[in-house]
From TrEMBL:
Keyword Repeat: yes
Domain HTH myb-type: 25-74, 75-129
Stored InterPro entries: Homeodomain-like_sf, Myb_dom, Myb_TF_plants, SANT/Myb
Pfam families: Myb_DNA-binding
Name of the protein described by the UniProt record: R2R3-MYB20
Organism for this UniProt entry: Lilium hybrid cultivar
Amino acid sequence: MITLGMIPLEMSGNTSDSASKSILVRKGAWTQAEDVLLRSCIEKHGSVKWSRVPQLAGLNRCRKSCRLRWLNYLNPTLRRGTFDEDEEDLIIRLHKLLGNRWSLIAGRLPGRTANDVKNHWNSRLSKEVIARDKKNGGQVRLATPIRPQPRAITARKQKTSSVITEVEDDHTSWLDHLILDDEKYNKGKMEGQTEAEISFGGLKGFNDDQGLFLEGISRWENPLSDILN
DNA sequence: AACGGTAGCAACCGCCAAGTT
DNA sequence: CAACTTGGCGGTTGCTACCGT
């Protein structure tokens, strides 16, 4: 972050940002006045294109900076303050399942942003988890993050690919299954079951919809392997 | 009081995929 | 179909506040 006192005028390094190609845009910490301008712009115009926001708000900021400031700080639906135990527990479990998929993890925590979750993980939780694993004999159960993940359902996709849409519609469902599976794993550990017992039991529990889940994954993987082969 | 180390967090950067022209 | 634009993501940086010495 380059602040150069309080007059941090810089060219944006992002060449894909049309708003910053030929004009100097402000960088660094946001002032109260800028926050007021951005907030009133969003309240007035609603969900306009972010590329138009700097102009509409009268801000000398790039679109990305405006979007980030709104999503991570000004958005009234955000929940500020410390993470409670339940939230931390959920983050740890989801991270074990998903890896650094911060936006997915944050999606399970109402009012929390991906940036919040990531910062909290990097500054606190990762150390806690490492310490806990060391204490437990260094056994870490890590899951390979599941990819690819659909980002959003678009009108075009819905028109052109019923397959993708079906899988995306099940997006919440498969994540629920993963969490459920992990809960069963932890329960099994507590009850002294072996890895195999837990895995088998977890798979059974994982469930009545298992076929649908695996079909969903294969629908992603098959076209991918077609391309690669 | 001064200093150094560090935790927490806001913000930026580079990249990617989807959408538009 | 290519070029360009846009939205979104994860990784990283650097400022600030706090704490111990």
